Amino acid sequence: MHPDGHVSWFLNGKLNVCENCVDRWAEETPDRIALIWEGDDPSHSKRITYRDLHTQVCKFANMLKRLGVRKHDTVGIYMPMIPETVYAMLACARLGAIHSVVFAGFSSHSLRDRLDDAHCKVVITADQGVRGGKVIPLKSVMDEALKECPLVEKCIVFKHQGHDIDWTEGRDEAMRPYCPLEPMDNEDLLFMLYTSGSTGKPKGIAHSSAGYLLYAAMTHKYVFDYHPGDVHACVADVGWITGHSYVVYGPLCNGATTVLFESVPTYPDPARYWHMIEKHGISQFYTAPTAIRALMVHGDEWVSKHDLSSLRVLGTVGEPINPEAWRWYYEVVGRKRCDIVDTYWQTETGGHLLTPLPGAIRCKPGSATRPFFGVEPVVLDSKTGQPLEGDDVSGVLCIKKPWPGMMRTVYGDHERLLNVYLRPYKGFYHTGDGAVRDKDGYYWITGRVDDTINVSGHRLGSAEIEHALVQHPGCAEAAVVGFPHSVKGAGLFCYVTMNNEYEVNEGTVNELRDIVRKEIGPIATPDHILIVPALPKTRSGKIMRRLLRKIASNDTGSLGDVSTLADQQVVSDLINAAQKLFNKR
Ligand code: WTA
Asked: Which of 29, 52, 531, 537 has its Cα between 20 and 30 A from that of 430?
């Protein structure tokens, strides 16, 4: 790994990602279905051929061009899961503009910070989104964000729901045949996607054109055993990397038919996925362990009444899958006929790093098994930073050599790429995860080793949530940790201290919860907020998160070494307060 983060593939070659994903298929197989859109309302679906996709993307690109979007500009996308979102992404790629999709569940504050950091001049949104029957007022959230985004000149609004919305003349544009392709250098940035880190500020993870596309397409082909004629369904939102690589770029680059799912797994009932698989004849189905666990509790009947014989490969991503959920997926959904691929990767990695290959790698439930082609994982001793040789070892998971889909920079802050990923263990890419390599050389992810928390497969930074909590006028200090949660994988436990003069009342906890929802979005809603007199700190003032994690997990049998604590009394106060909270549940 180059110490300055110089990574390049096919240097000085030329391509256009949109041409690879759209034009060549529109020419070769124009009538093949590119996108199947499954709307929130199960009676709403649309099939879009490669020919249509080409026309729509060109129109969109021409509109962007008319608004002044040029090569290397950045464009913000805040959209629901609808075909227009894919047109917008591909239109940017066609013009060589760098897109930044912001997940539609983020609040106006999070949206503002991301648009601002990315220097977006043009943003794209919709009037409203709808998920599980609930309306998401995207345009009004965007309006709120744009009050504080002076760089944004134009806002394109797609009328998805067709409701009345506020309109700012001169800034908001409505939609309007061929648009030429911009030749791009292989290393030009295709997109950035913000992700949480240990510090408060989210990072714009920036990906290249050729390396990323190759990696997304190749992993899609081999890990999902894709063959022409398959219907590939990755139900992740395009606001996350999984949606970028395995709803849009990987499948389309392979000329596949890809499903765009607007709804949630339990709407209108817990058979939604299985109904959809039967309806569209889906061959590969890719979801998160949290969704599997949420559906398991509803019982097998929802699954067994559907014909799932089209399925061949079942995938999971986002967090370790517990063996019980793995077996249910294998036995009840896959009926012991389908291969399960537990894919381990990150926003930063562009595509799968550790994963079984269907039919070729024997699985062990709960292990992401072995590296994908060309990936060289190492397990390092966390103290010495030395690679642990042989098998049956446990430590920090790093990668030895670059791979094509590796992130190229943190947008506007290359130093951060070096500090977060390349400097902690010299010569290696640091994943931020712990791992075990077992006696058979299989990898087991043991969870994040930094202060990020994986809630329902969404990575959240403790610092971000803490920053939101202290916006409350009475809040003095906050510490947020994860605790094991039966459905979400991890839940959020917030410890809060209030200013002495502030009078805590019955509504305070709700106010604190609402602040987090407003500052970050509903995905970061705390599970527990505990107002405490003080936080446990070392003599040098560092919050002892290890202790807080134990207390939040109701695992206070052995607290480990607490001799460095400045005030021992604090711990028993915390344990008592937490006990009261657990007893209330
Ligand atoms: C975790 C999602 C165990 C891990 C593609 C990683 C997993 C973080 C798995 C990245 C898996 C993802 N087994 N853990 N199969 N997949 N993770 O950036 O902690 O949203 O670092 O990318 O999710 O989350 P991100």
From this structure: 537
Q: Is 320 in the pocket of ligand 1 (CB under 6 A)?
A: yes
350: CA distance to ligand 1 center in Å? 12
Residues 6+ apart with CB under 8 A from 505: none
Largest CA distance in the chain: 72
Give the tens place of pLDDT for each residue, 522-532.
999 999 999 99
Q: What is the pLDDT of residues 38-65, one digit of tens each?
A: 999 999 999 999 999 999 999 999 999 9
The 8-class DSSP code of residue 326 comes to: H
Query: In this predicted structure, what is the pLDDT of residue 556?
Result: 81
92-101, 140-149, 276-285, 442-451: range with lowest mean pLDDT: 442-451
- Site to substitute for ligand 1 among 237, 247, 346, 443, most atoms within 8 A of C-beta: 346
The CA angle 148-153-158, to the nearest 5 degrees, is 95
Q: What is the pLDDT of residues 286-305, one digit of tens each?
A: 999 999 999 999 999 999 99
- Ligand 1: residue whose CA is nearest its atom 14: 319
Cα(540)–Cα(533) distance, rounded to whole angstroms? 19
pTM of the model: 0.93
Phi, psi (rounded to 5 degrees) for 520: -115, -50
Class of the CATH-defined domain 456-583: alpha beta
Query: What's the pLDDT score for residue 197?
Result: 77
Which has the closest alpha carbon to 58: 152, 176, 207, 224? 176
User: Which pair of tokens denotes residue 157?
Assistant: 């609004």
Overall average pLDDT of the 199-226 stretch: 95
Whats the size of the chain, residue-wise?
585
Mean pLDDT, rounded, for 153-176: 74
Which CATH entry fits the domain spanning 16-202+230-256: 3.40.50.12780, 1.25.40.10, 1.10.10.10, 3.90.1150.10? Answer: 3.40.50.12780
Of 497, 20, 41, 111, nearest to 272 (Cα)?
41
Q: Compute, in angstroms, the gap from residue 571 CA to the centroid of ligand 1.
A: 32
Look-up: residue for tokens 């309006």?
Answer: 143
Nearest alpha carbon to residue 205 among 2, 38, 405: 405
15-41 burial code (b ≥16 CB/10 A, e <16): bbbbbbbbbebbeeeeebbbbbbbbbe
Which ligand 1 atom is the nearest neighbour of the CA of 346? 22
- What three-state secondary structure class fits 458? strand
Residue range 301-327, pLDDT digits in tens: 999 999 999 999 999 999 999 999 999
Domain boundaries, the chain: 16-202+230-256, 456-583
Non-local (6+) Cβ contacts of 354 within 8 A are 343, 344, 345, 368, 369, 370, 371, 372, 375, 377, 443, 445
Cα 385 to ligand 1 centre (Å): 22
Cα R_g (the chain), whole angstroms? 24
pLDDT tier at 223 (50, 70, 90 boundaries)? very high
Output the CA 216–ligand 1 centroid distance in Å: 16
Unique residue bearing structure tokens 């503002």: 112
Specify the residue with its C-alpha closest to ligand 1, atom 4.
319
